[in-house]
From TrEMBL:
SUPFAM superfamilies: CheY-like, Homeodomain-like, P-loop containing nucleoside triphosphate hydrolases. Keywords: ATP-binding, Nucleotide-binding, Phosphoprotein, Transcription, Transcription regulation. SMART domains: AAA, REC. The modification 4-aspartylphosphate is found at D58. It comes from Rhodoferax lithotrophicus. It comes from the Bacteria. Residues 9-123 form the Response regulatory domain. Transmembrane segments: none annotated. The keyword Repressor does not apply. This is Regulatory protein AtoC. Residues 153-382 form the Sigma-54 factor interaction domain.
Length: 480
């Protein structure tokens, strides 16, 4: 163990004496204090007598399941971080363990390097939790970061309150989280808040938009590459997994990942190691995975577009953010916070919003959710006189996002028979795409969803029709 002051105290529960000794010796060498037990009964007596930092338990024990111990500890609100050792290929057990509150799991045969890393991570997490439960922690790192991240999530509706409570609850474990919700509902903000509230808060936050990476580059981007692995690779490059080591890897738009890459991702997550392109060595990975999608992933599994086993791996904890139209009580707070943000960016005073405008905004369907609202407010500030807002969104009927904007002329209005049909259809398509992009604040994901296209199809059309979508939203930036 790295801390020399009070070595962490660990309980190892395994019925195989050889394995127990192996784990014990490995951990003793790291400087931890170790107790061992061969079955549930012995483990229970030790747990009654001592509080441990970490419990490591085999899943199958002569008198029951290791999972039972975890459930008992959780029921007693004990702070031990639990690591479960499961048989190779029993993904359900691992998922079950994480759902029950285990910090992490290892698969047999246990790789000792990985074993040491996971236990070190569990010890760090336990230490962070122990600090977090002390009453006063001035400027405590993860605490402050976490609080800030939560504060950026505006909304006091029951739906948002539940989301915030869940963020705090799930942040401390290693269990993968899948965040779902319509475009612009704040999935990335939620994912970041999970990271900022975890013991990994000071580690890297790596946000990846899976749909923005060309298929041919996916493997190199995720797993890294060695110099010369492919044409044009002049230096060794680390992949997202290596970059996120000790932190969180956020996989946005996971539903857009092509099937072959899904298999490779599954293998990496299961085996916790990746092989950079052109390398003979594998790198051990230590990143928590949080993913997000605006798609119905279960339906994608049904349709054969998403691997079921990967779905189970990523979806150990699921969080669904309700669309803005289902939490209208959040609208006033959101408007005030977004206007304050806009004013801060421009250095201008915060403009006031009329109750009548709030009411009209409440009638909009806003398919692009908070992002669309943000965009409407931006426009209203720009069109206003500095003190008051001027909404152009209400100049036309406001039944949906598209009609909130002034209508544009369509070539069909003139009802001419085109002399070049392809050109004519391209013009028409270009106009429709531009309108959808404009209506969603140039959010290609939202515009694609509105038109029933995948983001890939949208990006292809934008490129083919040379549409200037300068305000692209699908870049890989962390919220700051
Ligand atoms: N509850 C909220 N409070 C404050 N701002 C929010 C909230 N929800 C979303 N936003 C803002 O809306 C914008 C979109 O949020 P975000 O990128 O997290 O959404 P998303 O669901 O990940 O979208 P997409 O599916 O298109 O990737 C951001 O500017 C974000 O700051």
């Amino acid at each position: 163990m790295t801390s020399a002051i009070t070595p962490a105290h660990i309980l190892v529960v395994d019925d195989e004496p050889d394995l127990r000794t192996l784990y014990e010796l490995t951990l003793l060498r790291e400087g931890y204090r170790i107790d061992t037990a061969g079955d549930l009964q012995q483990a229970r007596s030790l747990l009654m007598a001592h509080h441990y930092d970490v419990l490591i338990t085999d899943m199958r024990l002569p008198d029951g399941l290791g999972l039972t111990l975890i459930c008992e500890l959780k029921a007693e609100h004990r702070h031990e971080q639990c690591v479960v050792i499961t048989a190779y290929g029993s993904a359900e057990n691992a998922v079950e363990a994480l759902k029950s509150g285990a910090f992490d799991y290892l698969t047999k045969p246990v790789d000792l390097k990985q074993f040491r890393q996971v236990i070190a991570s569990a010890v760090r997490s336990q230490a962070a939790t122990a600090v977090a439960v002390k009453p006063v922690i001035p400027n405590a790192g993860p605490g402050i970061l976490g609080q800030r991240a939560l504060a950026r999530l505006i909304g006091q509706s029951p739906g948002m309150r539940q989301i915030k409570e869940r963020i705090v609850k799930v942040a401390t474990s290693m269990a993968p989280v899948l965040v779902t919700g319509e475009s612009g509902t704040g999935k990335e903000l939620v994912a970041y808040a999970i990271h900022a509230n975890s013991h990994r808060a000071k580690g890297p936050w790596v946000a990846v938009n899976c749909s923005a990476i060309p298929d041919a580059l996916l493997e190199a981007e995720f797993f890294g590459s060695k110099k010369g692995a492919y044409t044009g690779s002049h230096v060794d490059r680390e992949g997202f997994f290596q970059a996120a080591s000790g932190g969180t890897l956020f996989l946005d738009e996971i539903g857009d990942l092509p099937l072959p890459m899904q298999s490779k991702l599954l293998r990496a997550i299961q085996e916790r190691r990746v092989r950079p392109l052109g390398s003979t060595q594998e790198d051990i990975i230590d990143a928590r995975i949080v993913s997000a999608t605006h798609k119905d992933l279960a339906q994608e599994v049904q349709n054969g577009h998403f691997r079921q086993d990967l779905f189970y791996r990523l979806n150990v904890i699921d969080m669904t953010i309700p669309p803005l139209r289902e939490r209208p009580e959040d609208l006033p707070d959101l408007c005030h916070a977004l206007l304050a943000r806009i004013a801060e960016e421009s250095g201008a005073p915060v403009p006031a919003i009329q109750a009548s405008d709030l009411e009209k905004l409440g009638c909009l369907r806003l398919p692009g959710n908070v992002r669309e609202l943000e965009n409407l407010l931006h426009r209203a500030v720009a069109l206003g006189n500095g003190e008051s807002l001027q909404f152009d969104a209400f100049s036309t009927p406001v039944s949906d996002g598209l009609s909130a904007f002034p209508a544009q002329t369509s070539p069909m209005d003139h009802a001419v028979i085109p002399s070049d049909l392809q050109q004519h259809l391209d013009d028409l398509e270009r106009q429709i795409l531009r309108r959808a992009l404009q209506a969603t604040g140039f959010n290609r994901t939202a515009a694609a969803a509105q038109l029933g296209l995948s983001l890939r199809q949208m990006r292809y059309r934008i490129a083919r029709l040379h549409i200037d979508s300068a305000q692209q939203d699908d870049t890989d930036v962390a919220p700051v």
